[in-house]
Amino acid sequence: MSTDISTKFIVEEAKESRIHEVDFDTLLFGKEFTDHMFECDFIDGKWQTPTIRPYQPILVDPSLKVFHYGQAVFEGMKAYKDDAGQVWMFRPDQNQIRINKSAKRLAMPEFPKDWFFEALNRLLVLDDAWIRKGKGNVVYIRPFIIATEPAIMAAPSTQYKFMIILSPVKSYFRGDVSVVFAEHYSRSADGGVGAAKAAGNYAGQFYPTNLAKEMGYQQVIWTDSNEHKYLEEAGTMNAFFRINDVLITAPTSDRILDGVTRKTVIDVARREGIPVEVRKITVAEVVAAAKEGSLKEIFGAGTAVVISPVKSFSYQGVDYPINKPEKSYADLFKELITDIQYNIVEDPFGWRYKVSADNY
Ligand SMILES: *Cc1c(COP(=O)(O)O)cnc(C)c1O
Question: Per the confidence metrics, is the pTM higher than 0.90?
Answer without folding.
Answer: yes
